Amino acid sequence: MSSSSARGDQWTFLTNHARVLLWLARDPEVRLRDVAAGIGITERAVQIIVADLEAAGYLTRTRVGRRNRYTIDSSVALRHPLEADHPVGDLLGAFLHREDAPDAPDTEQAEAEAALRP
């Protein structure tokens, strides 16, 4: 077995923190259990990631009835020193601005983009 086949299929470009943030940007009122199922990690892992993101200032959690609404501050800088001159909004924009339907704007996408505005 070559070393590339032993290791090469195991890594991805995005961290689970990025995946959770993207999911919350797409659907600010999503249940964390749905995020967990969609990403393929445990609900507890998602809760820890959300707490990390909230503590770092990337998002705020607001209680709306029995649910939470997540608002992302797109102006907060990325954490790694090599990317610190880029706001997280750049990363989100790379994924949220893809057009799935070129004829009509996506209402959910427009709402997610509105949630990103500081």
Automatic annotation (TrEMBL):
Residues covered by the HTH marR-type domain: 16-65
Gene3D superfamilies: Winged helix-like DNA-binding domain superfamily/Winged helix DNA-binding domain
Pfam families xrefs: MarR_2
Top-rank taxon: Bacteria
Compositionally biased tracts (Acidic residues): 102-111
Residues spanning the signal sequence: none
Annotated region (Disordered), positions in chain: 97-118
Protein name: Helix-turn-helix transcriptional regulator
Species for this entry: Streptomyces roseoviridis
